[in-house]
Each structure stands twice: as structure tokens, then as C-alpha cells.
Write a structure and sequence with these properties.
By secondary structure, the protein is of the alpha/beta class. It has a single domain (6-123), classed as SPOUT methyltransferase, trefoil knot domain (Alpha/beta knot, 3-Layer(aba) Sandwich). Helices cover 26% and strands 16% of the residues. It has four helices and six strands; from the N terminus they run βαβαβββαβα. It has helices spanning 18-23, 40-46, 85-90, 109-123; strands at residues 6-9, 34-37, 52-55, 61-62, 73-76, 95-97. The mean pLDDT is 86.
Length: 130
């Protein structure tokens, strides 16, 4: 665990019921700091000063070219559809990407989160990690 907060913006591409969490091996769900939002506008309303980055395949800076600071938000989209185009267009200068070879659509979501999260943690001296 990294002591990172998880912010879930609906609609989700998965279920949060006990059966689904158990099936995915999330027996530590009760230890995670989770916030849920009805939609992206709700997220922005509740986090008005959020410094956000949008992780998306294709466009943007490499995820290593960003100077992450404590409290930054890194938004990942659905594995199948990514982040909605409307949001990408509004924050086009905040898009980050992970380099990949070939024509593959994207990496697995959990792998992508781990790559970018640990770069942000590394840049901040692995703060809050034991």
C-alpha cells in the first residue's frame, strides 16, 4: 500500500459490491481512503484547487517529464474507452503518457497506475512510505 487516496469518478467500468471486491482479491479495501463522485463535474466541485494530470495513451508528455507534487491528482480512464474526449480537450496541456511499442491500445489499468504512481512517489522521496 502507498497511502494514496483513491478517487472514483462515476460512471465506473466495474462494480464495488462485496462479491466483486472479494473476487478481485481486494481483501484490504477497508484500509483504502476512497472517495466517490457522481461525475467529473462533481469531482471538480469538491476538489476546486486540484492540480490534475490525465493519463492517456497517445498524446501528451511522457509521465517522467512532469514534476509531481504532494496532493496532485492523476486521473486514469477506463481500460476500454479511456478518459472522455471532452475532458481531454479541456485539459490538453495536462495529458501524460507511458511510452509503448507498437499499435497496442493501452497497458492494463493497474499496471499503468503503478508505473505513474511510483514515479510520483519517487520524485517526492517516497514520502509516507515505510
Amino acid at each position: 500500500m502507498t497511502n494514496s487516496a483513491l478517487h472514483l469518478i462515476h460512471p465506473l467500468g466495474f462494480f464495488l459490491n462485496q462479491k466483486s471486491l472479494k473476487r478481485s482479491g481486494l481483501d484490504y479495501w477497508h484500509k483504502i481512503d476512497v472517495s466517490e463522485y457522481m461525475n467529473f463535474e462533481d469531482f471538480l466541485t469538491q476538489n476546486a484547487d486540484a492540480n490534475i494530470y490525465l493519463a492517456e495513451s497517445g498524446d501528451g508528455k511522457f509521465y517522467t517529464e512532469v514534476e509531481y507534487k504532494p496532493g496532485d491528482y492523476i486521473i486514469f480512464g477506463s481500460e476500454t474507452t479511456g478518459i472522455p474526449r471532452k475532458i481531454l480537450d479541456a485539459y490538453h496541456d495536462r495529458i501524460i503518457k507511458i511510452p509503448m511499442i507498437g499499435e497496442e491500445r493501452s497497458l492494463n489499468l493497474s499496471v499503468s497506475v503503478g508505473i505513474v504512481l511510483y514515479e510520483a512517489l519517487r520524485q517526492n522521496g517516497f514520502a509516507r512510505l515505510v
